[in-house]
Write a structure and sequence with these properties.
9 helices, 6-stranded parallel beta sheet, alpha/beta, globular, 322 residues, 26% helix, 7-stranded mixed beta sheet
């Protein structure tokens, strides 16, 4: 079957290891379900995999893609929960949890196999492309906002780096939940898009804000860390799920963190229950993922280049060949 896969890893030139071509179809195994992929979305996780993060050489070649929606063997329209081993189903209780493609072949292909426990019904209100955007970036944003930041309607939230998948999701979800959303981006057009999606205001990174925030959604890392900490009110919460600009800020702002009793919370993906809640939230409210472009899988290299350069707003979705 045709697939986009990591043949090699390179921390400096990740796209050099991306190959497009034939790979073996999934084999049947007890407790697992094979899904015919209708849409699969691209994440920074796929780019980090090509850099070798979480993907050692002895697991190559590895089909990439941890997010997908499709049709199971019984003809049901389904969405995949991308965290494997969270419950032990299909892999055994002693295997540590991992994200699909760290240990098992992924969804940038015509078919993908996952533990049956990881398959959820796709709401009829969502298209395959929309549903495929939810299990990583949108689930991450959902957990950051509603589980780890603990914000309530009316609270103020700063979203750093508008345009990325998680940041875009946080703006849309926050607006729908009655939060007062502010955003930053280096790009003027992306700031305008952020306001169009529901942010009250959008600023250049590091800009002075009109008020202190109840929470900050941080995925950029080193480049915005100091600004994120300084933007919080006393007792506020900074939730971080990524560090695309690096994980070693020049100023950790430790004094400010302890003196103002700020909370710094790490956040990774989300649970199956949270994904079910997110799917229901989107189906009932009309909230939909922001999709930058849907393209056939044979253009995967183009999609990866755009993700690497940051030349996108929202998600890139691949549609494998039938």
């Amino acid at each position: 079957m045709f697939a986009a896969y990591a043949a090699r890893t390179d921390p400096d030139q990740p796209l050099d290891g991306l190959e497009l071509g034939d790979r073996p179809a999934p084999e049947a195994r007890p407790g697992w379900t094979t899904v015919t992929v209708r849409a699969a979305s691209l994440n920074h996780h796929d780019l980090w995999s090509l850099r070798g993060v979480g993907l050692p050489q002895d697991r190559l070649p590895m089909i990439l893609g941890c997010d997908a929606a499709g049709v199971d063997q019984d003809g049901n329209e389904v969405v995949l929960h991308s965290v494997i081993g969270q419950s032990g189903h299909g892999v055994g209780p002693k295997e540590p949890r991992s994200i699909l493609t760290e240990r098992y072949q992924g969804a940038f292909a015509e078919q993908v196999a996952v533990p049956t426990w990881n398959v959820l019904p796709k709401p009829k209100e969502l298209s395959f492309a929309e549903a495929a955007c939810l299990p990583t970036a949108w689930l991450t944003a959902y957990r950051m906002l509603f589980t780890n930041a603990g914000v309530r309607p009316g609270d103020s939230v700063l979203v750093q780096g508008a345009g990325g998948g998680v940041a875009t999701a946080a703006i849309v979800l926050g607006k729908a939940a009655g939060l007062r959303i502010f955003a930053t981006s280096r790009d003027r057009a992306k700031r305008e898009r952020a306001v169009g999606l529901g942010a009250l205001e959008a600023y250049e990174p590091g800009a002075r804000l009109p008020q202190r925030m109840d929470a900050v959604i941080e995925t950029v890392g080193a480049a915005t860390w100091s600004h994120s900490v300084k933007s919080l009110r006393p007792g506020g919460t900074l939730v971080i799920s990524g560090a695309t600009s690096g994980d070693r800020p020049s100023h950790a702002e430790l004094t400010r963190i302890f003196f103002l009793e700020l909370k710094v919370v790490g956040s990774t993906m989300g649970s199956k229950d949270e994904l079910e809640d997110l799917l229901a939230f989107c189906a009932t409210t009309g909230v939909r993922p922001v999709i930058d472009e849907v393209m056939p899988l044979d253009r995967a290299r183009e999609g990866f280049r755009r993700l690497e350069s940051g030349d996108l707003f929202g998600k890139i979705v691949f549609t494998p060949a039938a």
